[in-house]
């Protein structure tokens, strides 16, 4: 059985959540070729609505923001219409929907984007990674450095995407500032070599993320906005420096973001428990924490330790649309099929079995 703390109700922003679980954002590559989420996407999220807070996969705010093949967008009328079906299905099944806004930055390839242009980044530094495309894995090209004017345009794209999410019926958005993508690239000294006000020191490297959050909060209300961070996460070729450098960066960033009174801070935690506790202490609203390799008996550990309010589920929820019911009952969990994570179609997406009533 799972800890009693998981089943306590919680108020997050404008939402009254029935428990302390949520769906973590996970890329699944099932959007239509124009980035519109179709009926299968609505079915997938609707199946998992008992998790309460549904945070979607990374969703690009613009053509430049797309990194992977088959990821959804939220910046055209077609995208809005597709996401409206998702929101309606989630709501009809008792859940709430936050759309994650993700600009991939340099983690992209021209073959995966609508305009087939060079990726953009804080600096023209190659991540030395491969990207999967329709023709197989290809080396990621060196990105183009964004001008200051283009940075302002990108912030406006986040603002427009947030407004589009609300127009689609979503309850809010999560800004993706983690896992090696554009906001994280600005934070990382080895990806951001800028000499202007967006690079060079902790305050300047934080500026882009703060301005994105300010714009989105102004557009739709701070209590409908969360942000995801992953201090020291070495994805996408990033290296944020030694422990002290990382702590200085995130103490400043989170301190500034805390002033905005966003609905939540979502930490993808990779091991610095002292930093996690200090961020928790600095944050005035809800904190979500997700960790790699957490077993079902550890789901509530961060809540019980006072480090988190909500525990988002990834792999467990992916393979078990009724994971809430299974955890409540102490029932066995389906095993994840890694071969079907990104292949498209219903297999490994909407066809995982649910418990059969006794």
UniProtKB/TrEMBL annotation:
Cellular component terms per the entry's GO annotation: cytosol
SUPFAM superfamilies on file: FMN-linked oxidoreductases
GO molecular function, one term: oxidoreductase activity, acting on the CH-CH group of donors, NAD or NADP as acceptor
Cofactor(s) listed in the protein's UniProt record: FMN
UniProt keyword annotation of Oxidoreductase present: yes
Record flagged with keyword Oxidoreductase: yes
Keywords, alphabetical: Oxidoreductase
NADH:flavin oxidoreductase/NADH oxidase N-terminal domain boundaries: 6-334
Domain of life from the UniProt record: Bacteria
Pfam families referenced in this protein's UniProt entry, alphabetically: Oxidored_FMN
PANTHER family: NADH OXIDOREDUCTASE-RELATED, NADPH DEHYDROGENASE 2-RELATED
Homology family: Belongs to the NADH:flavin oxidoreductase/NADH oxidase family.
Name of protein: 12-oxophytodienoate reductase
Annotated source species: Cryobacterium arcticum
């Amino acid at each position: 059985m799972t800890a009693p703390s998981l089943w306590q109700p919680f108020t997050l922003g404008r939402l009254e959540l029935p428990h302390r679980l949520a769906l973590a954002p996970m890329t699944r590559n099932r959007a239509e070729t124009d980035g519109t989420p179709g009926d299968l996407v609505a079915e997938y999220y609707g199946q998992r609505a008992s998790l309460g807070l549904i945070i979607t996969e990374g969703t690009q705010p613009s053509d430049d923001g797309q990194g992977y093949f088959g990821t959804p967008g939220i910046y055209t009328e077609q995208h809005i219409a597709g996401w409206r079906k998702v929101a309606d299905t989630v709501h009809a099944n008792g859940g709430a929907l936050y759309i994650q806004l993700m600009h991939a930055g340099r983690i992209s390839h021209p073959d995966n984007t609508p305009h087939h242009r060079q990726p953009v980044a804080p600096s023209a530094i190659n991540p030395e990674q491969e990207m999967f495309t329709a023709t197989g894995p290809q080396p990621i090209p060196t990105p183009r450095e964004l001008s200051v004017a283009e940075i302002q345009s990108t912030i406006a794209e986040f603002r427009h995407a947030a407004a589009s999410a609300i127009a689609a019926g979503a309850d809010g958005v999560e800004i993706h500032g983690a896992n090696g993508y554009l906001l994280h690239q600005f934070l990382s000294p080895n990806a951001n070599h800028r000499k202007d006000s967006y690079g060079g020191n902790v305050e300047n490297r934080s500026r882009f993320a703060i301005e994105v959050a300010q714009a989105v909060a102004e557009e739709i209300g701070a209590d409908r906005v969360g942000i995801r961070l992953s201090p020291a996460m070495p994805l996408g070729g990033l290296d944020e420096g030694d422990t002290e450098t990382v702590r200085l960066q995130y103490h400043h960033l989170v301190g500034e973001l805390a002033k905005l009174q966003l609905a939540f801070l979502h930490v993808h935690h990779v091991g610095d428990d002292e930093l996690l506790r200090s961020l928790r202490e600095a944050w005035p609203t809800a904190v979500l924490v997700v960790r790699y390799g957490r077993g079902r008996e550890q789901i509530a550990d961060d809540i019980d330790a006072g480090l988190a309010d909500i525990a988002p589920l990834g792999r467990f929820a992916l393979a078990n649309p009724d994971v809430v019911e299974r955890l409540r009952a102490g029932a066995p969990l389906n095993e994840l099929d890694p071969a079907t994570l990104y292949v498209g179609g219903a297999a490994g997406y909407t066809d995982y079995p649910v418990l059969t009533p006794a």
